[in-house]
Amino acid sequence: MPLLLLKDLPRYECLLESAKEFPDLDPSAAEAYLHLLRAGDDAFGVSERNLDEHGISQGRFCVLMLLWRRVHPRAADLPGAAGAEAGPRTPAELAAGANVTRATMTGLIDTLERDGFVKREPDPVDRRMMSVRLTPKADQFLREFLPGHFRTTAKLIGVLTEAERKTLVRLLTKISTQAAAMVSPSTASALIEPVAHAV
Amino acid sequence: MPLLLLKDLPRYECLLESAKEFPDLDPSAAEAYLHLLRAGDDAFGVSERNLDEHGISQGRFCVLMLLWRRVHPRAADLPGAAGAEAGPRTPAELAAGANVTRATMTGLIDTLERDGFVKREPDPVDRRMMSVRLTPKADQFLREFLPGHFRTTAKLIGVLTEAERKTLVRLLTKISTQAAAMVSPSTASALIEPVAHAV
DNA sequence: GGCATACAGTTAGGCAGCTAACGATAATTG
DNA sequence: CAATTATCGTTAGCTGCCTAACTGTATGCC
Predict the structure, then answer these.
(1) Banded pLDDT at A48 (limits 50, 70, 90)
(2) Which listed residue, A115, B125, B164, B197, has the most CB atoms within 10 A of its CB?
(3) The domain defined by A57-76+84-160 carries CATH number 3.40.50.150
């Protein structure tokens, strides 16, 4: 459970009362926001518990899955480009895929290599780069681990009907899109931003 | 952004194809699960960005809010008990409220005290305990910070209608409840568990 | 009353994020 | 071709999370 948060969310009446003191507080928005953080944390915790039992962390698992894509490319991953590379290979590509810095990826690869899950190899062409590859041990681990992981996920989401899942995905996508717009408003105004810099 | 995760979620067709290899993979469940983690992370990131600009971390903010409840108790917090204490006071209570270990809380209070936001005082009755209290500086900080924080939340959730918010909270609550049941199934079977141990 | 147990807070050590800076190498550009 | 610029991986040092073990204090049980 990585993100610490209030164990018990404030009740709606409490939010209503706080709104009297803080006019900027939108009770229904705050309620939805807090429930989102809590549910995300809960879901994360369920999967992390699964991973812990197998002695692997969320971060390491993420790296393994990115490399797994390379070993087992799906046709859907390569819609048009025929000879395109299937997945990330270098620490920099892995860092981009996992949304962490290169420095963090160095540490993750360090421990994964120490535990025998990946191997570093120097790139023969560009001598700045390294190639990271899964070992057979990692391949075997994933084949044993993933089914249970998928069952856990299915059990967690199993409380929702198919229609509810679609609705949930739709609403969450709206929020993610809005979050992206709030963090970097340049996404929509990519044509204007450079001008602003030029001026 | 605390929980690292795939930057780009796999597409639905890709999940469908993977399901051929892994029968335990429920594509719609996996899709909903991944979107939940991503949206939770996105929402978390938006608020964390807000906090960072004010030089305070999510964990510290959580502690301040727990202590704030004590300074400004709401009537809704005290439904029946008249003279009951309003909020957490000791490091152990704060740790329970923030869902972290006591050791972690020690570190958080250390830095908060160093920065002048809280003060430790020994408990006059039970000499094992400490009392943690907000300083006027923290009170002023929160009064200045919270309105912006609430506006950010309202803007993020603003993409949803009131009806959508209600739906979202309902679905997320279902998932959180299921997660709790999966992590500690003893909640419902507290009478059976001890027997199992006795045998 | 004396001793085992339980509990509060801290400390020590590990992992996983981050930023900033570095050396080595490649690419660009005058 | 030479020099600047950019990129790759790594290192060092920070924060914040964890577990395990420790000290001091209260409590419970003969």
Answers:
(1) confident
(2) B164
(3) no
